[in-house]
Design brief:
Order of helices and strands of chain B: HEHHEHH
Number of strands of chain A: 0
Oligomer: heterodimer
Largest interface: A-B, 34 and 33 residues
Strand content of chain B: under 5%
Number of helices of chain B: 5
Number of domains of chain B: 1
Structural class of chain B: mainly alpha
Structural class of chain A: mainly alpha
Helix content of chain A: over 70%
Distance between the termini of chain B: 47 Å
Distance between the termini of chain A: 79 Å
Shape of chain B: elongated
Strand content of chain A: under 5%
Helix content of chain B: over 70%
Radius of gyration of chain A: 23 Å
Radius of gyration of chain B: 20 Å
Number of helices of chain A: 5
Order of helices and strands of chain A: HHHHH
Number of strands of chain B: 2
Shape of chain A: elongated
């Protein structure tokens, strides 16, 4: 197995990273690409340990140390695409929450109106 | 007596639930993202671009640290995936800053990276302040 395969397996096996984070970290590693093959064995060991304990930030920082400026720019593009997805998902979530609140307010108003009418 | 105990437990449960719902990442995270989004421009001068790139690492690291905290009245619903993306951006900003500091940089790539960071500030601002 290659270094990238080992790291991918460590992410998949990590019990402390949720599915969303696993997907984001995998995409990040894919964008970082072949430079990971050049990592020193000690660095790879630390990265594998970090993913095993769910410390994605430490592992990400270690991976990034191996990138050239060209790869940094490419990986930033990948992060940006995922960020656009996150922003869109949050906007949809906020819209759904607003719709639920409006529906609850309408329901409450209906109940109050009926109570008032029946009291008259 | 039973009724009173039930009411006290109910009130305590509601209080705990309300506190949990009202906790989120510090509002300062939203302010930092908004400030950087507003200041996200592309300097004409290459030296100014290099200087900006070297400042990005500290700014993203500060945002990353804030997203690990929780406070009453904070920004709710910030998910782990978003925090991971900010951690990745902070790590990439640090690497870019180091490359510039070591003189291994390229003016065209510097501009490309700074544009990405500017775009990411706008997106972080939208995410945290919508």
């Amino acid at each position: 197995m290659s270094v990238i395969d080992d790291i991918r397996q460590a992410i998949a096996d990590s019990p402390k990273l949720d599915a969303g984070v696993k997907s984001i970290v995998s995409d990040f590693l894919q964008a970082a690409g072949p430079s990971l093959e050049a990592l020193a064995p000690g660095v790879v060991h630390n990265i594998l340990n970090s993913f095993a304990t769910g410390d994605g930030a430490a592992a990400t920082a270690a991976v990034t140390e191996a990138l050239s400026e060209d790869q940094v720019a490419t990986t930033l593009g990948s992060v940006e695409q995922q960020m656009q997805v996150a922003v869109a998902a949050r906007a949809a979530q906020a819209a759904a929450a607003r719709a639920t609140m409006a529906a609850l307010q309408n329901a409450a108003l209906t109940v109050v109106s009926r109570l008032l009418i029946s009291a008259l | 007596m039973k009724k009173v105990r039930f009411m006290i437990h109910g009130a305590a449960a509601l209080l705990v639930a309300a506190t949990l719902v009202a906790c989120g990442v510090p509002r300062e995270a939203g302010s930092i993202a908004a400030q950087h989004a507003a200041a996200a421009t592309m300097p004409a001068d290459d030296a100014a671009v290099e200087q900006r790139l070297q400042q990005e690492a500290a700014a993203w690291a500060a945002l990353s640290q804030l997203l690990k905290k929780q406070e009453f009245g904070g920004i709710t619903g910030v998910d782990a995936g978003f925090v991971q993306l900010i951690d990745q951006t902070a790590a990439l900003a640090k690497r870019d800053g180091d490359i510039v500091a070591n003189g291994q940089d390229n003016a065209a790539l510097n501009r490309q990276s700074l544009q990405r960071f500017n775009d990411l500030w706008h997106q972080a601002d939208q995410y945290l302040n919508q």
